[in-house]
Amino acid sequence: MARARNRPALVAHGGAGSAGPGAERAERRRAMMAAMRLGARILRASGSALEAVVATVAALEDHPLFNAGYGSLLNSQGNVEMDASVMFAEPVALPAALRPASRGKRSGHTDHSNGSDYSVSAGAVAAVSRVRNPIVLARAVMEHSPHILMAGAGAESFARKAGIRLVRPEEMVTERARERWRARKQQSEMLEAERAARAAMGHGTVGAAAVDVHGGIAAATSTGGVPGKLFGRVGDSALIGAGTFAHGFGAASATGQGEAIILTALCREAVLALADGSPRPVAREAILEMIDATGAEAGVILVDRRGRIGYGHNAASMQVARYDRAGGLRHLWLKPIATGRRP
Ligand code: ASP
Fold this sequence. Notes:
CATH topology: Glutamine Phosphoribosylpyrophosphate, subunit 1, domain 1
Number of domains: 1
CATH class: Alpha Beta
Bound molecules: aspartic acid
CATH superfamily: (Glycosyl)asparaginase
CATH architecture: 4-Layer Sandwich
Helix content: 25-40%
Number of helices: 9
Shape: globular
Radius of gyration: 18 Å
Number of strands: 13
Order of helices and strands: EHHEEEHEHHHEEEEHHHEEEE
């Protein structure tokens, strides 16, 4: 018997942080909508949620105003070190044509949520400097290696074998990122100035979560990391469960202070909470819990298996775009959630 067709939906973020320079907002909005159109087109053509989130995130990685791929922030040594991850929860009955190429370590988990069987798979890369699209490499790790997370030079060597072109690390550095790095370096003796600069910095990490008509559910996240990060630092965006998670209930991508997102396993907590709630209150609750535990700033986007979307953050601003059949394509500069405590 044919499976019921699901309602496709896609939600993406362009990072939580300061609103960023006003002069850049129109272009950031335009780029986000262009990336969303790619993802939405895939979903409308009955393509997979995995394809949709990777296409959306890769397009944002290519845009220099986002802190991912080309345009990533620089680490303390002035180099790009990028993290990315992707996860796919695939109904066991998904048509063969839509299944990723390799079974690899897939099917490690089958969940029986909602009476459906899902097999989940994931791939991630950490601290890579020589690939133009870290999310494409994360997907290659998922589909063509027996591993989930690969880092640094080893991940880049794997990229070459997987047919992904390597670039010189300098090719990933924009003039804008270099200027920001220089400005930070001048302030680095002054801790308070450093803290203030950090708080004022727009983050610009990118991520997406989607559900497709076949019931496939995916999330993807990519980042250049946080301002002033040490050489070798890896954040939540490389870590399944922290910055990215997908499951039979739904999928999530996070942004913000990675250390806090890791400590609270933000995306996994949020997605599992979809068992008992809808994405909007679940996103808000996940952020409130993160604040309680860490006092940090972060944001999360969520989609559930029914195609319902939610998001929340407690930074100054967060850029979000959404697509579903009922509402079409929309863009939002999202205000922070009210953090007045729960009863
Ligand atoms: N979460 C990212 C990291 O910590 C940064 C961000 O989302 O702005 O690397």
